[in-house]
Design a protein that fits this description.
mainly alpha
Length: about 625
């Protein structure tokens, strides 16, 4: 449909079809709407907010939110009074995308909406808009508003300390979902006043509240939580014990060592073992080495086994004695486990592995043999890297001295003769240095190198000439192309010639720009008044393209496991953002609250998402846009 004009009725039909339950119909309508770019479409969409059909009003609000045109702000504010809750909710989403401060007060008023779903949406929108004007109205709404969960989450996102005490009161709310949201928001606020109240609900009847509390106490990093968390190691639910162990490891208090070791020695700890291993590793508890070796490979969860291995590798690097004791154990499996850890410790483990080759059990001997092979391969690899680095340094030194000699002698043939006895790598390094020199002597030398008998030397010489971009090399390059038989060298010559052509174009552009500046100067001189001169400059000022930086460096540093998903999510490329959504959607409920909020924010403000496959958009809408309201 493109940018062609449409009448009111055509637009109305498209809006109606966009709301259709028939997938192909709605998908076509949405894509057709996305193609309509003229300014008149905004006016028609604003008019459609008053249409008699609620589906048309709904889709008009959605489209205005997608387009983010400031003209739509006031009409959308008026549409907050629409008689249909679903339409009002979509209007709130649209205002969230527009992110204008004038929407704050109308949205605050909308906290009194009759529909709970609308109140949820309004609260979350106020949180995501980040304006602290909303803090006190949100707190006041806690007393009379049944959409407490959304308000509590918004207060956490806003990060204002005035919300701490009201949120602490909600830790005693009868609704467990509200209690969980309050815990999460208090964790985000990071205020020490929340520590004691959180300790008091470590025995909450709801296990998910206890899990959230245990996790929050670790992240608040307050030592007052250590003793209560130690008591919670006996909680009846293994998931609670997992989070308690994790938090004790984060707090790094020595009083937790003995209780953690006692729990490690107990029988039924499969679900908690990985978390225990991590906690004991953080606390540098060498006494945990033998118990952990005995527990290796006893759990079915691969992540737990990996946690045990990593903790043992860390602990045994501090003290190898318990590991050697395990090598003398009567149980062959414990000896095998000890050998597996020794294989991770590097060359210092080699004598002990050699000794294990004489073990009475064939399986243990085989394990020791395999560990030694891996160890030696690693050591050989490290030695080769060191040798390569040394050789690279030698080559670089020789090449640098040769280039310095050339700059002093001004004789390119002398350099060629000097390097005749050197190997190819030295010549290539010299060529690369000369490519960076970009002077007349370097050009002559590189032309000589382009006639070398070695293919790699010729190819690198051509590439270096291409970097220099000197017009004097055009003829030698064309001659080299005629006599060259190697495909790769010919490709390098083509590339170099193309760069020279680009240089000519750049020079022409520079000349044109210079002429334009001269003309502009003459024009300015002819303009008498200051206001006219400013107007002229404004009209001719080019748009400045700024280099895009990472939007969420703190998130990438805080959650390194999700860094690639965050990189994709912040991309300007629609296909990369789709990858980001795909990575986050399946584990959305398991993500930290901060990542959930950022993902929702990016999705809501993504004005290109309608170009993605319809089924994918619907799925993401349910997760990122609607799920909060349904909760």
């Amino acid at each position: 449909m493109g940018n062609e004009e449409v009448d009111d009725q055509t637009l109305r039909n498209l809006l109606k079809e966009a709301h259709s339950e028939i997938e192909n119909v709605s998908e076509y309508a949405v894509s057709s709407l996305a193609e309509l770019k003229s300014e008149r479409i905004i006016d028609l969409l604003i008019q459609s907010l008053k249409d008699q059909d609620k589906e048309v009003r709904y889709e008009a609000a959605r489209e205005l939110g997608e387009r983010k045109n400031p003209k739509a702000i006031d009409p959308l504010i008026l549409a907050l009074k629409d008689e249909e809750p679903e339409v009002r909710k979509e209007v709130v989403y649209a205002l969230r995308r527009l992110r204008d401060e004038k929407t704050i007060k109308p949205l605050i008023e909308q906290l009194k909406d009759q529909d709970e779903g609308v109140r949820w949406s309004v609260a979350l929108t106020l949180g995501q808009l980040g304006n602290t004007q909303a803090v006190l109205p949100l707190i006041e709404s806690l007393n009379s508003n049944v959409a407490k969960g959304g308000i509590v989450r918004a207060l956490g996102v806003l990060g204002d300390k005035r919300a701490v005490l009201p949120l602490i009161k909600l830790l005693q709310d009868k609704d467990e979902e509200v209690r969980k949201e309050a815990i999460s928001s208090l964790e985000q606020l990071g205020d020490e006043r929340a520590v004691e109240p959180l300790i008091n609900i470590l025995k909450d009847k709801d296990k998910w509240v206890r899990i959230s509390t245990a996790s929050a106490l670790g992240k608040l990093s307050d030592k007052r939580a250590v003793e209560p968390l130690i008591k919670s190691l006996k909680d009846e639910d293994y998931a609670v014990r997992e989070n308690v162990a994790e938090s004790l490891g984060i707090l790094k208090d020595e009083t937790a060592i003995l209780p953690l070791l006692n729990l490690l020695e107990s029988e039924d700890i499969d679900g908690v073992l990985g978390y225990l291993a991590r906690a004991l590793g953080r606390l540098n508890v060498e006494q945990a080495i033998l118990p952990l070796i005995r527990k290796m490979n006893q759990v079915v969860v691969e992540r737990a086994n990996m946690d045990i291995l990593l903790s043992l590798q860390h602990l045994c690097s501090l003290s190898i004695a318990p590991l050697l004791e395990a090598l003398e154990d009567e149980d062959k499996q414990i000896r095998k486990n000890a050998i597996q850890i020794l294989g991770l410790l590097g060359s210092k483990a080699e004598p002990h592995l050699n000794k294990a080759l004489n073990d009475e059990n064939e399986e243990v001997r085989k394990e020791a043999s395999e560990a030694l092979k891996r160890l030696r391969r690693n050591e050989e690899f490290k030695a080769k890297i060191a040798q390569d680095n040394l050789r690279e340094k030698e080559i670089t030194d020789i090449a640098r001295r040769a280039v310095e000699a050339l700059s002093k002698s001004n004789n390119p043939n002398l350099l060629i003769k000097t390097l005749e006895s050197e190997d190819t790598w030295v010549k290539i390094k010299v060529i690369k240095f000369l490519g960076e020199e970009k002077n007349k002597i370097a050009v002559q030398t590189l032309i000589e190198f382009s006639k070398d008998t070695d293919v790699d030397v010729r190819q690198n010489a051509i590439l270096a000439l291409g970097k220099i971009k000197n017009k004097s090399i055009v003829k030698p390059l064309k001659q080299a192309f005629e006599r060259e038989t190697n495909y790769h060298v010919k490709s390098a010559i083509k590339t170099a010639l193309q760069k020279l052509e680009e240089m000519d174009k750049e020079e022409r552009l520079v000349l044109e720009e210079s002429q334009k500046k001269t003309q502009d100067f003459e024009d300015r001189e002819s303009i008498k008044t200051v206001s006219e001169r400013k107007l002229k400059r404004k009209e001719k000022r080019p748009a400045v393209k700024r280099k895009k930086r990472t939007k969420y460096p703190e998130l990438i540093e805080k959650y390194p496991n999700y860094k690639y998903a965050i990189y994709f999510l912040e991309s300007d490329d629609i296909f990369e953002r789709k990858i980001g959504y795909s990575l986050f959607a399946p584990l959305f409920k398991l993500l930290p609250q901060e990542l959930q909020d950022i993902t929702c924010k990016v999705w809501i403000n993504d004005n290109e998402k309608r170009k993605m496959p319809y089924s994918f958009v619907k799925h993401c809408e349910q997760i990122f846009n609607r799920q909060v309201d349904e909760d």
